[in-house]
């Protein structure tokens, strides 16, 4: 839990970033009640920071106009979060990431006290993140433009190069952007195809905003859409397995890309597309709950072969010592 001092500084940072915020919104962001928030405001005033409280139905807290805030200061936890984020940025397929990371790191270090600076340098020199090797786009413009369009709910005209090298144009509503498998993707509604589609950012040739807006489906998850898209690609075998557990446990012990999960009488129905039944049998063999193979029958044979291989490796057929 954050200390009271950290929360007081958080009030200052929020007012600096947002200009004006209601007491209710501030209290919710800090996860405190109204009385505690007022105590934080008084603490800022005691430190000589003038906070103006506007009364009434649309009242809000704001800093006095013209007041100059002190230099940027980070807590140890904030500095740690920023440093790890910079390390990750090197591996997230961002063009010119390395020089940008070094520049940002140098700026952060200039405002840190010496003990914290040494710790952050040690972190940057010794920590490595095992992320997928990215295919770096030519620049970051598509990422910036599409993320802005997604935030503003503004339609764009998207020029996209297909795997065959053909460049096509389409209206596109960007619901979200996601990083998966070493690449950036934009996910949303494609007006050329009339449905939900995902596009690799390294194949985007151009983005132009259009004078049209759109709505996003409630609780839309771009990463989950990508995972389900991979799971539903046609493959050699169509698989159906009834998992005797609840939906949360099924997803915890497996992974989204293995297939589509659907609640069903007596458990969860798992639909998958797979090329290698032996691999799929090994995924099922490690589950802590019971399951029933509905289709195909060849998957049952693969499970038997997996079980026999495990018995051989465990030496189950060997006589016990002394017999």
Mean pLDDT, to the nearest integer, reads 83
Enter the CATH topology name of the largest domain. Answer: SH3 type barrels
CATH class of the largest domain: Mainly Beta
* Structural class based on helices, strands and sheet pairing: alpha+beta
Trace the largest sheet across and list its strands. 7-6-5-4-8
Task: List the domain count as a whole number.
Answer: 4
CATH architecture of the largest domain: Roll
Report the radius of gyration as a whole number of Å: 27 Å
Low-pLDDT residue intervals, each spanning 5 or more residues: none
Based on Cα principal axes, name the global outline: extended
How many strand segments? Answer: 12
What characterizes the major β-sheet? 5 strands, antiparallel
Question: What pattern of helices and strands is seen along the backbone?
Answer: HEHHEEHHHHEEEEEHEHEEHEH
Tell me the span between the first and last alpha carbons. Answer: 61 Å
Helix content: 40-55%
Number of helices: 11
Can you offer a commentary on this structure?
- Helix content is 41%, strand content 24%.
- It has 4 domains: 4-63, Winged helix-like DNA-binding domain superfamily/Winged helix DNA-binding domain (Arc Repressor Mutant, subunit A, Orthogonal Bundle); 76-126; 141-225, Roll (SH3 type barrels), CATH 2.30.30; 232-313, no CATH class.
- The longest helix is centred in the C-terminal third of the chain and has 18 residues, at 297-314.
- Strands 7-6-5-4-8 form a 5-stranded antiparallel sheet. A 4-stranded antiparallel sheet has the order 10-11-9-12, with helices on one face.
- The chain is of the alpha+beta class and 323 residues long.
- It contains 11 helices and 12 strands.
């Amino acid at each position: 839990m954050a200390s009271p001092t950290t929360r007081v500084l958080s009030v200052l940072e929020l007012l600096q970033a947002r200009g004006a915020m209601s007491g209710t919104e501030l209290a919710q962001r800090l996860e405190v009640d109204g009385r505690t928030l007022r105590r934080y405001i008084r603490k800022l005033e005691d430190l000589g920071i003038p906070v103006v409280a506007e009364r009434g139905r649309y009242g809000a807290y704001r800093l006095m106009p013209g007041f100059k805030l002190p230099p940027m200061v980070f807590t140890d936890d904030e500095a740690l979060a920023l440093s790890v984020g910079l390390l990750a940025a090197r591996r997230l397929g961002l063009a010119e990431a390395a020089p940008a990371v070094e520049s940002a790191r140098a700026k952060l270090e200039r405002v840190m006290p010496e003990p914290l600076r040494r710790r952050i340098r040690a972190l940057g020199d010794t920590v490595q993140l095992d992320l997928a090797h990215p295919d770096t786009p030519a620049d970051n413009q598509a990422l910036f433009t599409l993320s802005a369009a997604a935030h503003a709910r503004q339609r764009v005209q998207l020029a996209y190069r297909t795997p065959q090298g053909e460049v096509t144009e389409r209206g596109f509503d960007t619901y979200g952007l996601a990083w998966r498998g070493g690449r950036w993707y934009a996910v949303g509604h494609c007006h050329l195809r009339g449905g939900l589609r995902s596009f690799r950012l390294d194949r985007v040739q151009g983005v132009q905003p259009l004078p049209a807006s759109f709505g996003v489906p409630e609780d839309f998850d771009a990463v989950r859409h990508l995972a389900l898209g991979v799971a539903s690609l046609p493959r050699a075998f169509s698989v159906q397995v009834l998992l005797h557990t609840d939906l949360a446990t099924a997803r915890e012990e497996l992974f989204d890309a293995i297939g589509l999960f659907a609640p069903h009488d007596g458990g969860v129905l798992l639909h998958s597309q797979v090329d290698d039944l032996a691999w799929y049998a090994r995924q099922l063999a490690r589950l802590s709950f019971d399951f029933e193979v509905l289709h195909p029958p060849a998957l049952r044979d693969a499970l038997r072969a997996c079980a026999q291989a495990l018995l051989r490796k465990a030496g189950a057929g060997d006589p016990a010592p002394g017999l």
